[in-house]
Amino acid sequence: MTQIRVLIVEDEPLIAEDIKEILSSIDFVVSGLAYDALDALRELRTNTPDIVMLDINLSSEKDGIDIATIINQEYQIPFVFLTSYADRATLSRAKHTRPMGYIVKPFDEKDLFATLEIALFNFYASQPLVELNLDQVNSRYDINLTQKEFEVLQSVMTGMTNRQMAEKHFISVNTIKTHLKNLYEKLDVHTRSQLIAKLRDGA
Amino acid sequence: MTQIRVLIVEDEPLIAEDIKEILSSIDFVVSGLAYDALDALRELRTNTPDIVMLDINLSSEKDGIDIATIINQEYQIPFVFLTSYADRATLSRAKHTRPMGYIVKPFDEKDLFATLEIALFNFYASQPLVELNLDQVNSRYDINLTQKEFEVLQSVMTGMTNRQMAEKHFISVNTIKTHLKNLYEKLDVHTRSQLIAKLRDGA
DNA sequence: GCACGAATCACCCGGTAGGGTGATATTTGT
DNA sequence: ACAAATATCACCCTACCGGGTGATTCGTGC
Question: Is-contact A126 B202, C-beta < 8 A?
Fold first, then answer.
């Protein structure tokens, strides 16, 4: 599996090195080390990572939460906060940047790994549309969709209207409706929403 | 502020007592101690806590992840996992229960406090969580769904009609339509099918 | 040749959904 | 205390959708 590139933003060189070592020992690779906000922004610009670990308390005018805000605005990559303690106000600020996770110091390898895995998993949960396979659908629901019904099914799954499907498939809206009626019957649903909901986990 | 009631599910009495002592020294109060899944379920039923700390490895047939599943189904209260180590498969199972945090042993007072604070904050910011996680959706699409909009979103994802949703949520069809209109606008779609299609991979 | 499934299309009807506008009470944040 | 966000509901109107019925064409296979 591809190695995941992590940018570490941490002003304590010792901790930063610790993290780097831990990450190297597992599935991740450190794309960069930043000791302050300026470093961090340059790294983001020139060497974009897959995920960012942000220490909240940095010894610069901008802290980790400020960087998080910028990440949200400029880049859309996941980040986790790395902190030993945060008061209510700080926590509230941090929360509003919608981080994908928190890592509380001190932490160990398993802690780091779990948090990053979860953060990435949640962030990339939206995968490209999975192509449904006719045979799989047929066998899973023990039905027998025809070729055309399956094509219409795939179109409906993307959220198209009847008219859009008619144009895409070069047939009339009435024909689309007929195929849909057959689909509803075969899959035992009554609306296109139910259809999508029923098949949304893929086949 | 009101003290927060914590249920501890931990089969090692020594560790459980440790946690109890730490919690007592900070803002939390231990509402109960459970040594296995049966204890835990009884505590949940009779003495409902504000948050649950779940050891994953329990010396009973059901482990912490099983309990988490039940909490998601029956109660909608936040929980954090408490574990020293988890392999990939276990982590994957745990992840899917959408815990509000992880505490990795060994831990200290600050560690506990920060994790519980964060868990509670995140939870009450995204209550109730059922299949989808509001924060996740909000951050992925860089929007700001309200609580009610999110609840309607979850219902729509299951294929319900407006009338069905109105009955479920005890509000009028008109209100459902208002929330849907806002959802469409925020998520930049025009039909419920598009909505489901856009969010179908789990969000 | 004929039966059968598949694909095509038409028409009607009632219900649902989507879009616009406006209004009020409650909650929340500052 | 005040402003903003949220949750609630109403009305109107058009378009779309789901369900029912029926019909034609075209292959494939027996």
Answer: yes
3-state secondary structure at position A103: strand
Domain that includes residue B26, residue range: 4-125
Q: Within 7 Å: CB of A144 and strand C?
A: yes
Per residue of chain B (203 residues), what is the pLDDT tens digit? 456 788 999 988 888 888 888 888 776 888 889 998 888 999 988 888 888 999 888 877 888 888 888 887 777 688 888 876 555 566 667 766 767 776 766 666 766 776 676 666 544 433 322 334 566 566 666 678 888 888 888 889 888 999 999 998 889 999 999 999 999 998 889 999 999 888 765 44
Q: A123, A145, A165 — which closes off a domain? A: A123
What stretches of chain B show up as alpha helix (H) in DSSP? 13-25, 37-46, 64-74, 88-96, 109-125, 134-141, 147-157, 162-169, 173-187, 192-199
Task: Report the relative pairing of strands B28-34 and A28-34 from DSSP bridges.
Answer: unpaired
Assess whether pLDDT exceeds 70 at residue A108: no
Structural domain ending residue among the three candidates B71, B105, B125: B125
DSSP state letter for A180: H
What is d(CA B3, CA B107) in angstroms, rounded to the nearest whole number?
Answer: 22
Largest CA distance in chain B: 57
- Encode burial over B159-183: b for 16+ CB neighbours within 10 A, e otherwise: bbbbeebbeeeeeeeebbeebbeeb
Residues of B from 156 to 195 whose C-beta is within 7 A of strand C: which are they? 161-163, 173, 177-178, 180-181, 184, 190-193
Q: A117 and A139 in one domain?
A: no
- Whole-number distance in Å between A175 CA and C10 C1': 10
Q: Are B141 and B135 spatial neighbours (Cβ–Cβ below 8 Å)?
A: no
Cis peptide before B128 (omega within 30 of 0): yes
pLDDT at A196: 86
Separation of B1 CA and C24 C1' (Å): 33
- Which residues of B lie closer than 8 Å to A, measured between beta carbons? 84-86, 91, 95, 101-102, 104, 110-111, 113-115, 117-118, 121-122, 125, 133, 135-136, 138-140, 142, 156-161, 189, 191-198, 200-203
What is the tens place of the pLDDT at every residue in A109-167?
A: 766 776 776 666 544 432 222 344 566 677 667 788 888 898 888 889 888 999 999 98
Same domain for A98 and A152: no
